[in-house]
From TrEMBL:
GO biological process annotation, one example: DNA integration
InterPro entries the UniProt entry points to: CB, DNA_brk_join_enz, Integrase-like_cat_sf, Integrase_catalytic, Integrase_recombinase_N, Integrase_SAM-like_N, Tyrosine_recombinase_XerCD
Name this polypeptide is given: Phage integrase
Family under the similarity heading: Belongs to the 'phage' integrase family.
Any one Gene Ontology molecular-function term assigned to this protein's record: DNA binding
Length: 397
């Protein structure tokens, strides 16, 4: 019967022999990371000192072996550090996504798992954690935490620090039933009116708004662009000489942590790069913006600050929120206009056209999150069902 192999990183019994100069040599066998057993020794004036020195040599050897690696005894905090470094090494994520992952990990996941070694993170612990988030926070919060926790523990598997990913065996998170709600035509007009009148008129101190917020709304309604995509539109992306006028959506505005707000040369997804034809009311706004820019560089942004730097998405959201609160209008965000666009286009041209306009890769997301369901059944059914009328039936009109 074959003897079981000594686990990597362990050593056997310590033996002692006399060394030169009256020293004592402590020796043992140590199984290295390559699976080979090697003799390791250290000397000292006495057996106790030689053994202590030997243990120091082994400790340094183990430390060198584990440097940059993970084991079942590694802390969850150590895993997070390695995982974040791995994300940076692969460099596959957009800066905004990388920042979101780290924020979700540190704010949502770390408080629950930072005291555990990897071997202590079980399916039941993860399952209770995710269910607690879904109940006490929201489905969306639990889903975001699940994503980053699964990615990190998946890396631990690749380092052989875990036999399996505990997240995969947790129960499925159930999304609460919901449906998209789009702004009505009346609500859009109320929003326009509120924005046009905000901080204007007699008795208002300070300079009036620069008018960009109302223009941004008209361009969102005409292009369906995400707020970051719209703020990234450049002079060279706009063609008002064609009929209808067109806008190329090819970037987005990002505000990386510790860095200035900047234009990212690609939008959220590859499918999101698109050229859209816009209605006349949007084209009129774009002509006004182009006239304001004048002969500036073609790369000049259509919307910008007084210092000609990019507007931040948070700044636009904050200003829109302030206007809506003052007007007593609730629940309006930049995404509200995308839902309005999606619903209007769906009613006239179908979900496929709406998804194409919004830059979605399929209609699934568009239908679930942007198009308000139409409860009205096609009235042609009334004509069809006339065939079921009783014999001799006549319309009394």
């Amino acid at each position: 019967m074959a003897r079981p192999r000594t686990p990597i990183g362990t050593f056997g019994d310590v033996s002692f022999i006399k060394a030169t100069g009256g020293q004592v040599r402590a020796r043992t066998r140590y199984r290295d990371d390559d699976g080979k057993v090697r003799r390791v020794s250290a000397t000292g004036a006495t057996k106790r000192e030689a053994e202590r020195n030997l243990k120091q040599v082994l400790a340094e050897r183990m430390s060198y072996r584990s440097s940059g690696e993970l084991s079942p005894d590694s802390s969850f905090t150590a895993l997070v550090d390695v995982w974040l470094a791995d994300l940076d090494l692969e460099a596959k994520l957009a800066e905004s996504t990388r920042a979101l992952y780290e924020r979700n990990m540190r704010q949502l996941v770390m408080p629950a798992f930072e005291g555990y070694a990897l071997r202590e993170i079980t399916v039941s612990k993860v399952d209770r954690f995710l269910k607690g988030l879904a109940i006490n926070k929201s489905y969306s919060t639990a889903k975001q935490a699940r994503t980053v926790l699964s990615l990190a523990l998946g890396l631990a598997m690749r380092y052989d620090a875990l036999p399996k990913n505990p997240v995969r065996d947790t129960s499925r998170l159930h999304k609460p039933p919901s449906q998209a709600t789009a702004l009505t035509a009346g609500q859009v007009e109320a929003i326009r009116s509120a924005v046009r009148g905000w901080r204007r008129g007699p008795g208002i101190s300070g300079p009036p708004p620069d008018g960009q917020l109302e223009q941004i709304i008209e361009v969102m309604l005409g292009t369906s662009a995400r707020i970051g995509e719209e703020l990234a539109i450049r002079k060279c992306d706009v063609d008002v000489t064609s009929t209808p006028a067109t806008v190329r959506i090819s970037g987005t505005i990002v505000s990386p942590a510790g860095k200035p707000t900047q234009r990212q040369p690609h939008p959220k997804t590859q499918k999101s790069t698109r050229t859209v034809s816009v209605p006349t009311f949007t084209a009129e706004v774009l002509r006004a913006r182009l006239a304001k820019i004048g002969p500036e560089d073609p790369e000049h942004l259509i919307f910008f600050t007084r210092n000609k730097t990019p507007l931040t998405t948070n700044n636009v959201r904050r200003r829109l929120r302030a206007v809506m609160e003052e007007a007593g209008i609730e629940g309006v965000t930049p995404h509200s206009f995308r839902r309005r666009v999606a619903t209007v286009i769906d009613r006239a041209g179908g979900a496929d056209l709406a998804a194409e306009m919004l830059g979605h890769s399929s209609t699934k997301i568009t239908k679930e999150h942007y198009i308000e369901p139409d409860e009205a059944v096609n009235p042609v059914t009334a004509e069809i069902l006339e065939s079921l009328a009783p014999k001799g039936w006549t319309d009394g009109s």
